[in-house]
Amino acid sequence: LAPAEGQTPKALDAEQEPSPSTPSSPRCGARRLAAGLAPAEITTLQSGGPGVYVVTQKVSLTTGSAKASPRIEWLSAGTHVQVLEVQCRLEDNRVRGRIEEPAGWISLASLEDISNRWAVMDLEKSNRWIVGGVERLKELTRNLEAAEQVTKEMQEAATAKLSELYQREAEVAEELVQSQSESHDLRDRCVQHESARRDAKLALKAVCLQVDSPGVYCLSSSVDVTEGPARGSPKCERLATDTVVHVVEVVHRLQERRVRGRIESPAGWISLLDIDEGSRWADKQLDASNEWIAQIPSAGSIAAGGLEGCQRHAASRKEQQKPSVPSSTEGAAPIELNPGASAASASDFGLSYAGDQP
């Protein structure tokens, strides 16, 4: 039928308000439902709180609590829904409920006529739902209490661990202070030992400088034989380790930082000592040197002429030895200055110990 003049058709998405005479009328349904319910249950039904509802007539599901919110879908009569929240929308003249599944809002009742309902509470299912919710709440409470207990135990353990760490930190700090003190002591001792080592090294150098004098030497490493006392003099040959030589003159080459010795055979000069490092190329053989010195002419006859006599004697012996110097070390034997002569000390014979010379 066409609407009367001045009237407009009802919107398709508006909740239909059936007349009380229709079988689906919520007023008739409420009467039939209330006939078999206890007063407390009727009160619960009328209160419209959260619970399980059954849709009594086609209703629109919207995204928001306002009736004019965008529609999601239509719910048909007989659909069971779980209402989680209820709001009275005075501006819409509706009691609206937020349902769990499908998620959204529906109209529950009209504020103008409370008997005009789109959904009524299913008390039995609501009670089961509430009981289930209570059980879930109890379970959640137990879980929360257990979590709180675990958290408390973890906090206590963390506090104990933190206290232990603080104590360990204090111990480490004390150990660090002690280690720093010991480090300072060790550093001071190292400085003292280094000073003592330098002093010993200097003393060793002094002893080495005093020890080196004419005599029999054994080479501790291979060494070059040069024509003159300078290291840069032309090389004659190279002597191998363990070669025994007779040193007849010793000089200190300060510019070259060497103690140099003139040897009989092969005739020339070799390095005996590194003045800076204290390393040696030849070691003096005391017993062999004493035997060799015993072959030198009488000390008294040499000493009578004083220093000049010693120098003249050394020059004379040097001239006498020149023709007999072999050209190579093969088969060479030590030269005896005066076989059969009486013993004399190294300071008495003409091969004098040379002082500091550049």
From TrEMBL:
It comes from Polarella glacialis. Residues 1-29, 310-358 are annotated as: Disordered. It comes from the Eukaryota. Residues 18-29 have a biased composition (Low complexity). This is Uncharacterized protein. The lineage of its organism: Eukaryota, Sar, Alveolata, Dinophyceae, Suessiales.
